[in-house]
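SusD family protein, Pedobacter steynii. Tokens?
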Amino acid sequence: MKTQNIFAICLLAVTLTTSCKKYLTIPLPVDKISGSSAFTNDKSVAAQISHILGSMAGSQAFDGESIGFLAAEYSDELTNYSLKADNVAFYNNTVSNNLTGKYWTSFYTYIYDCNLAIEGINASTSVINYKNQWIGEALFLRAFLHFSLTNLYGDVPLVTSSDFRVNNVLGRTPKAEVYKQVIADLLQAQSLLSTDYRNAAGTVTTSRGRPNKMAATALLARVYLYAGEWAKAEEQANALISSTATYELPAPPQTFLAASRETIWSFTVETNASEPYVREFRIYYNNAPAVLLPPATVNSLGIYAALSPSLISAFESTDQRLTRWASKTTTSPVPPALPQTYYFVSKYKSSVNGIENIVMLRLGEQYLIRAEARAQQNNLPGAQSDINSLRSRAGLTGTPASDKTEVLAAIAKERRTELFTEHGHRFFDLKRTGTVDAVMSVAAPLKGGIWTSQKQIWPIPAADIFANPNLTQAPGYN
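Tokens:
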């Protein structure tokens, strides 16, 4: 975590990085962005937070060949058709630290930027009208990044300062302690942020591209669930589900549209990006035809992967999540070759800018969080009701699950068919429920790999271990 030079780089990037344009909206001249002057008014402070949001949105950590995509290949959600060596390594569970370390590096860079912003705003003696919003956004992002890091890399350094002399000698912090800080950050963010969505000028907007109080609430519900704090997870999820004036479950075709009322927080796709649409469209779907005529192949379509047979079998035949969120393509080969059927992920269907954004948090997950929290507290009718809300949206009848074991199994199944390929949910679920070894010991050989338990933790950059004697590599990696 070499952060001593990042501040100057990031401040300059605020004015130079075009991918942040929509989040920034209020450009500042280079000579006004230096040292404490970066925190003298709302425009300059908004620029700092906008830069973090824009950098995260413009990266491939959350879109395209993202954590969600790679974790889906790494687990049991996808069948890989890409010839790229990196994708094959993830699919075969043979990753090295140079493949997985990029997220570690970029996430700690973002955390450093968040810490700079929090410290700078708090230390400023200037009048900052929307101070609470800017600090709340930075706290939310710091919490989100730490949560993501610990679910990818296990115990990770907990970084809450911009002092590189402290950060560069931090060792791994136990996951429980990381969660404690994540929860504290989110509770503070809740107290600072408005339930309204606001833009970089601090004014109310219909765009859900910046985190608000309800985004903090949604992430807090998830963290409480992962930490096994069932009553608190239910309480937070209930706050979202009961906010019916703002959030609702639309029909499956509308779920991932930019104007969807299911979205709690999303990243805005910039018009001047190299691909001015959600990049998942290209790698997963790319307007795949219903019938694939020879000599066309999956590779010629430019699609990287399709749903795995085990994931396809998890869907009931009339489940609209399969028919609406996946595109069925069948080959028409020359006899005696037999037809093959593929299901390509098509949650995002548009190559037109502004139609869809990168959905980060949505209401469907909150129903699943509340269902699991209720089941763990033996409120089985409440859990069944939440399951059935999603099943009804998918065109299915109510769950037949009755006792606690069956209801928890039904929730796990619904999480798989509702959240597939989204932001690592399946991989994280397997790990947090202690089922990863049982599932992957079966799935890995089918993908041409071998599973061992230490592979559930991804390796970190060797350079950071070399530079910091207090850091250790994940077990089983060099």
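The first strand starts at residue 78 and ends at 80.
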